[in-house]
Amino acid sequence: MADTILVLNGPNLNLLGEREPEIYGYDTLEDVAAQCRAEAEPAGLKIDLRQTNSEAEMVEWFQAGRKGLAGIVFNPAGFSYAAYPVLDAIKLVDCPVIEVHISNIHRREAEWRSKSIMTQVCTGIISGLGVAGYALAVRRLVQLAKK
Ligand code: CA2
Predict the structure, then answer these.
(1) Which structural domains are found in the chain, ordered by start?
(2) How far is ligand 1, taken at its centre, from the CA of residue 116, in Å?
(3) Average pLDDT, whole number, for the chain?
(4) How close is the Cα of 103 to the center of ligand 1, in Å?
(5) Helical ranges in the chain per DSSP H
(6) Four-residue CA torsion sign, 73, 76, 82, 86
(7) Comparing C-alpha atoms, which of 128, 123, 116, 127 is closest to residue 94?
(8) Which residues are catalytic?
(9) Which of 65, 71, 92, 118 is most buried per CB count within 10 Å?
(10) Residue 99 gets which letter from DSSP?
(11) Ligand 1 test: best mutation among 103, 112, 122, 129, most atoms within 8 Å of CB?
């Protein structure tokens, strides 16, 4: 059985916990990694959490993850709205991909935030449950890996 879940984060999420806490909360990506590990490790799965501001690097991570992963949790952040090369790369992977947004992208001040182009190629989406959405996505990927 594939034993790793990738947790991929797009632009600016390296600043999670530092900026706009009223929207995104106070947890950092390190906290998110710990919450994801608490879901995955009892099932014998590992978490590999990464963040990049580079679209090219994100494409390369999806390409490298084409085979052999239990699943991918993906917060595309600003890539959600225009990064078609990333959308194409998601289509290459053979594991489930769950899109996660910390905020409810359908309930934000700007309408463009609700139009993620990634959703059409992801297995499912969690949006608006805060950083807890990451661990919930991992929980579902653990269930799917056991099937
Ligand atoms: O709610 C989410 O998780 C988002 O994907 C976050 C993105 C935003 O562009 C999406 O519309 C929704 C990134 C927001 C800007 O980056 C920040 C990172 C940390 C703290 C504050 C802002």
Answers:
(1) 4-146 (3.40.50.9100)
(2) 12
(3) 97
(4) 8
(5) 21-24, 29-40, 55-64, 84-90, 132-146
(6) negative
(7) 123
(8) 24, 101
(9) 71
(10) E
(11) 103
